[in-house]
Design goal:
151 residues; alpha+beta; Arc Repressor Mutant, subunit A; Alpha-Beta Plaits; 2 domains; four-stranded antiparallel beta sheet; 5 helices; 4 strands; Dimeric_a/b-barrel; sequence-specific DNA binding; transcription
Amino acid sequence: MQIDLIDRKILRNLQRNADISHDDLGAQVGLSRNACWRRVRALEQAGFIRKRVVLIDPDRIGLKLTVFLMIRTDRHGPDWLEEFAKATQDMPEILGAYRMSGDLDYLLQARVADVAAYDALYQKLIRRVELADCSASFVMEELKDTTELPV
């Protein structure tokens, strides 16, 4: 499916507010409610819209610390990778896990209450998988944090 300018406008608006009514969304992109609904449905069926979620303020629920874990490993076999992927998926504190190019093997993003909670996460991770090196950086200030893609 090819998307046009109107589809892009729909996606931009839905990224800002997935709860918007089809009437309001249609008015913002220049379509009737029904035409807008059909486009949104087509975008969902084609996989452009994976799911709709609620974004929770992490500070309000006590998850005040963002941590990036830089992982190096000397194990690169499929069994280790499967074990590592499963461990990261099982830990809800880990929001993102990425296999990297260059000097770093993996980068994890986690959200925890404080340094003690980070240490508990670290201990849980190293009990699950063997790592050659793990270092962490704590976010001091968020300058930008968004889920909106440039559509």
